């Protein structure tokens, strides 16, 4: 089957099997910044923003979200022109294995776009679905606080 999606602001028509997940369709469509970790909704590596809400794309059937707007980490910013959240992750030393980072950045974006003044508990809850096995979450939390501050200061 075929479906039209708006991915990172650009309309795309993609072909996929009726039972394909959004994760499969995105990766097959070249959006490899969306990572496949557990494929069971546990790790958060595949997180994207779908119509304004954070989802784990391995748990969403593509057929059920045809016509939707999808934002991935590359839609937020690029190496040359990073989003303040991406820059905050770099500056706070929170870019770790790199595999989980796109999902964490998207979880942060979903949080800060709805809540510019998150408490530490709210940050913890927002990142609850993103698992990191390489180290602790201290630098990641620092990055979210820094991003919140910068986004408040610069609109
Ligand atoms: S790959 Fe989707 S949550 Fe792990
Ligand atoms: S950032 Fe990927 S395991 Fe820690």
TrEMBL record:
Keyword terms? 2Fe-2S, Iron, Iron-sulfur, Metal-binding, Oxidoreductase
User: Does the keyword field hold Iron?
Assistant: yes
Q: Which Pfam families match?
A: Fer2, Fer2_2
Residue ranges that the Swiss-Prot or TrEMBL entry lists as coiled coil: none
Give the highest taxon in the source lineage. Answer: Bacteria
InterPro entries per UniProt: 2Fe-2S-bd, 2Fe-2S-bd_dom_sf, 2Fe-2S_ferredoxin-like_sf, 2Fe-2S_ferredoxin-type, 2Fe2S_fd_BS, Beta-grasp_dom_sf, Diverse_Oxidoreductases
Query: Which GO molecular function annotation, any one, does this entry have?
Result: 2 iron, 2 sulfur cluster binding
Q: Where is the 2Fe-2S ferredoxin-type domain?
A: 1-76
State the name under which the record lists this protein: (2Fe-2S)-binding domain protein
């Amino acid at each position: 089957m075929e479906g039209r999606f708006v991915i990172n602001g650009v309309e795309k028509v993609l072909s996929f099997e009726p039972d394909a997940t959004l994760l499969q369709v995105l990766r097959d469509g070249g959006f490899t910044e969306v990572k496949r970790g557990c494929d069971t909704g546990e790790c958060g590596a595949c997180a994207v923003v779908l119509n304004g809400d954070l989802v784990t794309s391995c748990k969403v059937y593509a057929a059920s979200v045809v016509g939707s707007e999808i934002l991935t980490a590359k839609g937020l910013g690029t190496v040359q022109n990073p989003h303040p959240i991406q820059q905050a992750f770099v500056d706070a030393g929170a870019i770790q294995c790199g595999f989980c980072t796109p999902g964490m950045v998207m979880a942060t974006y979903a949080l800060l776009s709805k809540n510019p003044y998150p408490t530490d508990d709210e940050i913890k809850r927002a990142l609850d679905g993103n698992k990191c096995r390489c180290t602790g979450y201290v630098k990641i939390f620092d990055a979210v606080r820094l991003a919140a501050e910068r986004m408040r200061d610069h609109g």
